[in-house]
Design brief:
Blueprint lengths: L7 E10 L2 E11 L4 E5 L6 H8 L7 E6 L2 E2 L5 H8 L2 E4 L11 H12 L4 H14 L15 H13 L5 E5 L7 H16 L3 E5 L3 H7 L2 E6 L2 E6 L1 H5 L4 H7 L6
Parallel strand pairs: 3-8, 3-9, 6-7, 7-8
Antiparallel strand pairs: 1-2, 1-4, 4-5, 9-10
C-alpha cells in the first residue's frame, strides 16, 4: 500500500492573482482513504487549493496530481475524465434553481453517462435517501433550508461514486445541530473508503472529520498533524486558531 500514489498531490504549486501570491510553493500529499481538513484565516489559499485539485484553476508553476496523473496540462475531455473521479460540495451547495432537487442530483448522470432514465432516477433517489431527503425529489431548491441544500449538494457530489470528495466550508451558515449532521455524513463517507479534503473555519468540525489538519498561512503550510498536535503547536497563531470554537 505504501507504494501507491497519493489520491491527491500538489507539488510546489504557486498561484498569484495580480501581484498577490495566494499559493507559494505549496506541496501536499493526501493518501487514499484519508480525511484532511485545510484550515487557516480568510485569504490564505484554502479554496484556491481546492480549485486547483479539481482543475478549475491551473497553477502558475508546479504540478497537481490526481491518483498519480498530472492534471496540470489537461483540457477538455481529458480534464472532464479526471473530474468525474472527484465530487465537489460547494460552500453554497450551488444547486440549479430551475430544476427539482432530484434532477439536481441526477444531473451528472445525465451529462456523463448513458444510463437509462429509470436507473438515473433510482440512483438519485438512493442518494437522497442516504442524506435524509428521500421525500424531497420533486421539491425545488428554493423550498429547502440551508442544511437541506447542503445535503442535496452532497448527494449530487456522490452520484458518480467518486473516490475523492472535496468540500468547501460544508458547515458554513448552518446551526450546530445541522452542521453536525453534515459532519457525520462526511465521516461516514470517509469510513467507507472515500478520500476527503475539507476546507473549514469550523474547528469543532475539523476535530470530528480530520485524520490530519493542515494549517495554511500566506499560501504555505504553517503546521500540520492531528488535532492534538496542532493544539500543542509552538506557533501562537495555530494555537489561537485551534482554541476558537466558532466557525468564524
Amino acid at each position: 500500500m505504501s507504494s501507491a500514489a497519493p489520491a491527491v498531490e500538489l507539488r510546489n504549486v504557486s498561484k498569484a492573482f495580480g501581484g498577490l501570491r495566494v499559493l507559494d510553493d505549496l506541496s501536499l500529499a493526501v493518501p487514499a482513504g484519508r480525511a484532511v481538513c485545510i484550515l487557516g484565516r480568510s485569504g490564505t489559499g484554502k479554496s484556491v487549493t481546492l480549485k486547483h485539485i479539481v482543475g478549475l484553476l491551473a497553477p502558475d508553476s508546479g504540478q497537481v496530481l490526481v491518483e498519480g496523473e498530472d492534471i496540470t496540462p489537461l483540457k477538455g475531455q481529458d480534464l472532464s475524465r479526471v473530474r468525474k473521479r472527484i465530487g465537489l460540495l460547494f460552500q453554497n451547495a450551488a444547486l440549479f434553481d430551475s430544476i427539482s432537487v432530484g434532477e439536481n442530483v441526477a444531473f451528472p448522470l445525465r451529462r456523463h453517462t448513458r444510463m437509462p432514465d429509470e436507473e438515473i432516477r433510482a440512483r438519485a433517489e438512493g442518494l437522497l435517501r442516504q442524506v435524509g431527503l428521500e421525500r424531497d425529489y420533486d421539491k425545488m431548491p428554493a423550498d429547502l433550508s440551508g442544511g437541506m441544500k447542503k445535503r442535496a449538494g452532497l448527494a449530487r457530489a456522490l452520484v458518480l461514486e467518486p473516490p475523492i470528495v472535496l468540500a468547501d466550508e460544508p458547515s458554513a451558515g448552518l446551526d450546530p445541530v445541522t452542521g453536525g449532521e453534515i459532519d457525520a455524513l462526511l465521516v461516514g463517507l470517509n469510513q467507507a473508503g472515500t478520500t476527503l479534503i475539507v476546507v473549514t473555519h469550523n474547528i469543532p468540525s475539523a476535530r470530528v472529520i480530520g485524520d490530519e489538519l493542515v494549517f495554511l498561512h500566506e499560501g504555505r503550510i504553517l503546521a500540520r498533524g492531528d488535532a492534538a498536535a496542532l493544539d500543542r503547536s509552538e506557533i501562537p497563531l495555530v494555537r489561537q486558531f485551534m482554541n476558537s470554537e466558532s466557525s468564524g
